[in-house]
Amino acid sequence: MKYIVIIGDGMADRPLKELGGKTPLQKAFTPNMDKLAGKGIIGRVRTIPLGFHPGSDVANLSILGYDPREFYTGRAPLEAASLGVKLDDDDIAYRCNLVTLRFNREKTRAVMEDYSGGHISTEEARELIKDINKELGTENVGFYSGVSYRHLMLWSGGESDAECVPPHDILGKEVADYLPVGPGEEFLREIMRKSVDILEGHHINRERTNQGKNPANSIWLWGQGRKPSLPTFREKYSIDGALVSAVDLTKGLGVYAGFEILKVPGVTGYIDTNYVGKAEYSLKALEKVDFVYIHVEAPDEASHSGNYKDKIRAIEDFDALVVGTVMRGIRPFDEYRVLLMPDHATPIEVRTHTDEPVPFVIYDSRIKRKNEGVTFDESITERNDIMVIEEGYRLMDYFIRGE
To answer: Are 312 and 11 in contact (CB under 8 A)?
Structure first.
């Protein structure tokens, strides 16, 4: 048996008046996902346990079969694993976004204009983080570059209990109300303030401004935690796996799960990503392993930007180029199961993650169901004839074991 999981990050949404009361997922042309929904087991699942922040870290941890209440320690430690940054027991890893702050003329107030620094390129960001580390790094503090705007700060012997807010949650809001609060707040705030002095006049940001792009003029620290201790996927389910994603968070989960991390050229985590490459590399991996996890970030990024047209485009590309490619290419395998779902909802109206249950479909090549009139969208969650899973980590148990 081969198993393939296909995740459209943040794909679920809420009805929009601009779309005549439909969601982007309902408005998009998605024949491949609809076909799966018409022939598979449909249901709803709560990937975010009550009381947890609705992050992709918590959601994907759940989907992979790990109970966040037992295994979650923070987002940044997962990203550290993807970057090859080893954490000691007293190390605290922080997510370090390159963001765009919009200051008033006196520079006494600032608004979070862009959580991604204009979706800065990895090459540009690498140079900015290098200079941040040169100026602000110490024996106990180091900065490590990742992909695009997503980077890492390691604080040896640091504090982990400050309340830190994700920058995509405060778009258009004054940042003074959302700076770190709690143990270590003075240090964290000072680091963020000093980063502005370094980045605002940087030649990369001057050039970006000249080109009409948002400058990455500050870092934003959040998502901190210590290294987790997870059993591998083989230890849990007795099968080996591979994972493909443009996002260090998801790749880090794969590292801890013991997966092979597939390196696909041209993956960006945005609407210009190499969708087909993700599908093709995953199909190739199934010749060696029995489980593949495909994660596509693009719908989530469009949601954070508040752009429903980009989200519809991302969903349609996901359907045609990922789901379609997978379902055509998987046919040579005699027996296989496919799990298709969002990891969480990211409604355009709020531009951030929410914790409501999301739809899923499990397609089994050996069993042909007939769900008349069902399409793959949020309406599945409102039906009475569906599978309901309240503890998200149990979905993987059912997918692999049928339990």
So the answer is: no
Determine contact, residues 217/207, Cβ cutoff 8 Å.
no
What is the rounded (10 degree) CA torsion for 373, 379, 384, 386?
80
pTM of the model: 0.86
CB atoms within 10 A of CB 40: 23
Q: How many helices (H) and strands (E) does the chain have?
A: 15, 13
Cβ neighbours of 265 (radius 10 Å): 7
Residue 203 neighbours by CB under 8 Å, 6+ apart: none
What's the CATH code, domain 2-72+229-401? 3.40.720.10
pLDDT > 90: what percent of the chain?
A: 92
Note the pLDDT tens digit of each residue in 127-159.
999 999 999 999 999 999 998 999 999 999 999
Nearest Cα to Cα of residue 133 among 89, 90, 191: 191
Q: What sign has the CA pseudo-torsion 191, 193, 197, 199?
A: positive
In the chain, list all ranges with CATH 3.40.720.10. 2-72+229-401
| Per-residue model confidence as pLDDT tens digits over 78-97 | 999 999 999 999 999 999 99
- Whole-angstrom distance, CA of residue 148 vs CA of residue 248: 11
With beta carbons less than 8 A apart as the criterion, state whether 42 and 389 touch. no
Tally of CB atoms within 10 A around 123: 10
Classify burial at 90, counting beta carbons within 10 Å of its beta carbon; exposed 0-12, middle 13-18, buried 19 or more.
exposed
